[in-house]
Design brief:
By secondary structure, the chain is of the alpha+beta class. It contains 4 helices and 4 strands; from the N terminus they run E-H-E-E-H-H-E-H. Pfam families: DUF1330 (PF07045).
Length: about 110
């Protein structure tokens, strides 16, 4: 089942270390089957506020996503970003291809008191 690394990064002033991080990051996740789904694109806010930027990297599994995050290669370059850009980063598993939200809704409704 696919998994995703999702980052919500705040605006940051341009910096050489950020450019170096961007140049090197792909090589850290490719060995784990990772690929960019969203990077450097503008986004459209429909509800609430969402300042900054969104990055989404897809992985074949949550184990592959975790292995990338914990890898020596990624941890070696992570400070190039984190010293200059604040943000939130999560790893999240996707849903199976046959996922049906109506089943989840029925389960929720069945657990509610009458």
């Amino acid at each position: 089942m696919s998994a995703y690394a999702i980052a919500h990064l705040q605006e940051a002033a341009p910096h050489r270390e950020i450019a170096e991080y961007i140049a090197r990051v792909t090589a850290t996740f490719e060995p784990y089957g990772g690929r960019f789904l969203v990077h450097g694109a503008s986004h459209e806010v429909k509800e609430g506020t969402w300042p900054g930027h969104v990055v989404v990297i897809s992985f074949p599994s949550i184990d592959q996503a975790r292995a990338w995050w914990d890898s020596d290669a990624y941890q070696a370059i992570a400070p190039l970003r984190s010293r200059h850009i604040e943000g939130d980063i999560i790893l999240v598993p996707g849903v199976p291809e046959d996922y049906d939200a109506t089943v989840t809704a029925r389960t929720m409704l069945g657990a509610l008191p009458d």
